[in-house]
């Protein structure tokens, strides 16, 4: 049976429990988890850690290969949803509530560490990268899929930034994980065989920019949080509404959007 283990680290913010992230994961970005699993070469018999797993976008396809998978995330509500999905499919995963910046696992415990648009949202990038490397054995694999700064989601965060509360001290912007030079610097000489490619996710879910905006206002934690922070200022709400709709309209071509991401794989030295 699939189990849930709750660590002592508790979610410091309800950000990712806001809205309905599972809808984003299943209706919009579902192809991304299988992509990073494939690129990293996950296979039966391996011990795999999915860091910032959410509801299991990468953890579930990793488990389908026959790998022994731990799905780790700081937001318990997402793990509960992921576990229900796994149980309905008959998959056996270990769901654990952990902080990506302080993972409670032994050095070299895993054959593979993955993250699919997940660890990029840990505020202290170097701490998260250090933990990713630490828990992978020598010769093991790391696979990371992150939105690029120049791509659509990176542009969405840039659009929301003037309306968002100030980040906590030491926090770095999530889309930096989509910059190859930044990730190479985070991992340093502790990895070899680095392969980094930019790819795009085709999204045909939205007819207009306003459709995109309204979906993210209802489902996506960071967008919901920004709107809540300006809820008492209707003029700022209207301005952000217009800016996000315009962003969506600019990205639409014949009913399709292309959302760029960086896919980076490496081997632990």
From TrEMBL:
Residues 48-140 form the Methyltransferase domain. Gene3D superfamilies: Vaccinia Virus protein VP39 (3.40.50.150). SUPFAM superfamilies: S-adenosyl-L-methionine-dependent methyltransferases. One of its GO terms (biological process) is methylation. It comes from Nocardioides conyzicola. The keyword Transferase applies. GO terms for molecular function: methyltransferase activity. This is Class I SAM-dependent methyltransferase. Keywords: Methyltransferase, Transferase.
């Amino acid at each position: 049976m699939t189990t849930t283990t709750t660590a002592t680290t508790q979610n410091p913010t309800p950000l990712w429990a806001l809205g309905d992230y599972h809808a984003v994961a299943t209706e919009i970005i579902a192809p991304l988890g299988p992509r990073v699993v494939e690129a990293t070469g996950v296979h039966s018999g391996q011990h795999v850690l999915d860091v910032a797993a959410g509801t299991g976008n990468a953890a579930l396809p990793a488990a389908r290969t026959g790998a022994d998978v731990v799905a780790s995330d700081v937001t318990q509500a997402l793990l509960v949803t992921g576990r229900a999905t796994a149980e309905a499919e008959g998959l056996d995963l270990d769901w654990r509530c952990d902080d990506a910046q302080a993972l409670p696992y032994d050095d070299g415990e895993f054959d593979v560490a993955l993250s699919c648009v997940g660890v990029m949202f840990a505020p202290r990038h170097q701490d998260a990268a250090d933990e990713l490397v630490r828990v992978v054995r020598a010769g093991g694999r790391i696979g990371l899929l992150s939105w690029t700064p120049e791509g659509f989601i990176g542009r969405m965060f840039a659009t929301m930034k003037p309306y968002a509360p100030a980040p906590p001290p030491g926090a770095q912007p999530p889309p930096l994980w989509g910059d190859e030079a930044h990730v190479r610097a985070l991992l340093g000489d502790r990895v070899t065989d680095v392969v980094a490619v930019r790819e795009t996710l085709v999204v045909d879910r939205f007819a207009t920019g306003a459709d995109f905006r309204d979906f993210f206002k209802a489902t996506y934690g960071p967008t919901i949080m920004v709107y809540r922070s300006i809820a008492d200022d209707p003029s700022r709400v209207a301005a952000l509404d217009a800016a996000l709709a315009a962003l969506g309209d600019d990205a639409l071509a014949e009913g399709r959007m292309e959302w760029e991401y960086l896919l980076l794989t490496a081997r632990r030295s």
